[in-house]
Every structure is written in structure tokens, then in C-alpha cells.
Amino acid sequence: EVQLVESGGGLVQAGGSLRLSCAAAGFSFNDYVIGWFRQAPGKEREGISCISSRDGTTYYVDSVKGRFTISSDNGKNTVYLQMNSLRPEDTAVYYCAVDSKRHTVVPGAVSHFLAYEYDHWGQGTQVTVSS
After folding, report:
1. What is the tens place of the pLDDT at every residue in 58-101?
2. DSSP string, 17-64
3. Which DSSP helix (H) or strand (E) runs through 47?
């Protein structure tokens, strides 16, 4: 059974940092595209970053570019999202997901941020940024 488990969320003041982790069990991250999404109350789920665990290529949505960094440790079967300079509008439940159909990231490709392209999801971790 494929399982993704996110951790690292919490409450932080604006300007602070958090590092989210996404650990996989039941399969290997190796060679897939892993994405981070977030969903704020009353809003649709939004793709914010993704990484190819094959070659490390990354892609970010403009709202997090320069503040968030995605990375993967294939040996630990874990993907991370380092979030710096957090803002109140970053408050959301954050999810990691795997697109097992794709092995590479094409920066600029809209498909990387479409939730229905991903076939395995974690349960989410809450991030709250206070002003």
C-alpha cells in the first residue's frame, strides 16, 4: 500500500520559517515527480512546487518563488519543502503528492500543478502564519 505522510506544519509568525517533510512508504520516490499543493479554507487546492526525483529539476508557482525550496532525498524516500519569509496568505493545509506517470519536470508546464494529474496523496499538514 502506498502511503505519503507529511509533517512539519505548525503555527509561525509572519517572516518565519518552516520545513515540511513528505515521507513515502510502500513505494520508492525514485524516478517520479513529487508535488506540493496547498488548500486554504474556501479555496481550491493549489499546486505550488514540484520536483523530479530523477534529476532534481524543480518548478515553483510565482507566489512562492524565491521563498520556498523543494528538495528530495531519495535515500530517505523523503521530499522537503523549506518555507521562508512566510506570510499570512501562506496559511493552508499543505499536501504532497506523486505523479507516477511523469519522471521529469518541465518548468512552465501547467500540468505539474493540476491536482488530478497526481495519483497518490498524503493526509496534509496544517500551516498557520500569524500576522
Report:
1. 999 999 999 999 999 989 999 999 999 999 999 999 999 999 99
2. -EEEEEEEESS--TTSEEEEEEE-TTS--EEEEEEETTT--EEE-TTT
3. strand 46-52
Taking a C-beta distance cutoff of 8 angstroms, is the pair 68, 48 a contact? yes
8-48 pLDDT tens trace: 999 999 999 999 999 998 877 778 999 999 999 999 999 99
Cell of 124: 496534509
Contact assessment for residue 127 and residue 94, using Cβ atoms and an 8 Å cutoff:
yes
What is the widest separation between alpha-carbon atoms in the chain? Answer: 40
Angle at 57 between CA 54 and CA 60, to 5 degrees: 135
